[in-house]
Amino acid sequence: MYNFQFYNPTRLVFGKGSINELPKLIPADTKVLILYGGQSAERNGTLAEVRAALSDYALFEFNGIQANPDYDQLMPAVALIKQQNIGFLLAVGGGSVIDGTKFVAAAACYQGEPWEILETYGKHINAALPVGVVQTFPATSSENNNGSVISRYSIQAKRSFRNPQVFPQFAILDPEKSYSLPATQLANGVVDAFIHVCEQYLTFPVNAAVQDRFAESLLITLKDTGPQALANPHDYDIRANLMLATTLCHNGLICSGVPQDWATHKIGHELTAIFGLDHAVTLAIVLPTLLQMFRDAKRDKLLQYAERVWQLCDGNDDDKIAAAISKTREFFEQMGLRTWLRDYDINANDLQPVLDNLARSGMTQLGEHKNITLEMSQTILEHSI
Ligand code: NZQ
Ligand code: ZN
């Protein structure tokens, strides 16, 4: 196991009715800005509960944060915060709203042009406004991590940043608030979370028994509860297990002390930037091909994954690995995601802008061995058609 430091200060407030805890979590006499997306949080009653719980606070609202949040669309929130001297930001929504809120929290305190935050991956953030979260979409773990992914549509860019200053102070996780998710989004969330674990687990062994077993329990929980949640959208226990699993998939714990990949995400982000595909869809396309291409380098962990997650015990090691990769793709398709670029009318002639973007953002040495060059990314994409 590698040396590591684990730090995660986000308080998780889990369960039915937990929005009522808000006044205990936000200091009194603070001006609060509620940030949200389209109409989903209004329609399913989450915002009404939030406004009621915070009725003693001076409340401001910023709405319309879109999926894959846009830098230019977020900047008016920064202006509003400065103008009104806002002291606390409350994100009500999914990963996009949470990521957008983290960016705004850092941008409001940043000296200089805020796009620099993305260009420098968050390295120069020295302060940020406090952020809290009411999560409505189990997927990204953004509610308890220090990362954020921001797009800038005017230049077809999708970049991420990371900094301890943007850890949310708390995350309210009420499984009932996610009941209104359409099946396609629910499926996206399950697949995104599953692939978060793969990025931290399907690398090479470093004798990290706890991290491995924890990762396997998350993968098994997702592969079991994902289809159950699709079939029973209002079952509390299923949704509660799903929500807890997605929250723990990418919160800094299972990546502690082990190698990490993340090439699927880096390539996937550029597919979203160029073609507008949903985040999880891009991952479901790239991961199975990447595993196939790097099955030798990832051999030991793929075998462990086959045996422990998919209970594949028959045949020789190569058979088990092949079956595990097939089962992974089948699982994504069972959830309703299509896993080939051709399913989205994308062919080899369309790929150059994706590669240009990877080059422009310096994504030319990806993967746990830093050996996924631009040429390799091209091959992965070509084999995903
Ligand atoms: O805009 P509204 O009306 O809220 O609708 C949203 C949105 O259209 C809807 N939705 C959310 N909660 C709902 C709901 N609809 C009905 N009922 C509910 N309870 O779902 C749609 C998608 O929401 P979004 O927030 O975009 O989804 P997700 O949570 O998957 O977030 C995706 C974003 O997170 C980034 C992705 O790149 C993408 O931009 N990621 C962030 C990460 C992080 N910060 O650590 C890691 C991830 O790998 C990922 O890259
Ligand atoms: Zn993701």
TrEMBL record:
<dbReference type="InterPro" id="IPR018211">
    <property type="entry name" value="ADH_Fe_CS"/>
</dbReference>
<feature type="domain" description="Alcohol dehydrogenase iron-type/glycerol dehydrogenase GldA">
    <location>
        <begin position="9"/>
        <end position="175"/>
    </location>
</feature>
<dbReference type="InterPro" id="IPR056798">
    <property type="entry name" value="ADH_Fe_C"/>
</dbReference>
<dbReference type="InterPro" id="IPR044731">
    <property type="entry name" value="BDH-like"/>
</dbReference>
<dbReference type="Pfam" id="PF25137">
    <property type="entry name" value="ADH_Fe_C"/>
</dbReference>
<keyword id="KW-0560">Oxidoreductase</keyword>
<dbReference type="GO" id="GO:0008106">
    <property type="term" value="F:alcohol dehydrogenase (NADP+) activity"/>
</dbReference>
<dbReference type="GO" id="GO:1990002">
    <property type="term" value="F:methylglyoxal reductase (NADPH) (acetol producing) activity"/>
</dbReference>
<feature type="domain" description="Fe-containing alcohol dehydrogenase-like C-terminal">
    <location>
        <begin position="187"/>
        <end position="380"/>
    </location>
</feature>
<dbReference type="Pfam" id="PF00465">
    <property type="entry name" value="Fe-ADH"/>
</dbReference>
<dbReference type="GO" id="GO:0005829">
    <property type="term" value="C:cytosol"/>
</dbReference>
<comment type="similarity">
    <text>Belongs to the iron-containing alcohol dehydrogenase family.</text>
</comment>
<protein>
    <submittedName>
        <fullName>Aldehyde reductase</fullName>
    </submittedName>
</protein>
<dbReference type="GO" id="GO:1990362">
    <property type="term" value="F:butanol dehydrogenase (NAD+) activity"/>
</dbReference>
<dbReference type="GO" id="GO:0046872">
    <property type="term" value="F:metal ion binding"/>
</dbReference>
<dbReference type="InterPro" id="IPR001670">
    <property type="entry name" value="ADH_Fe/GldA"/>
</dbReference>
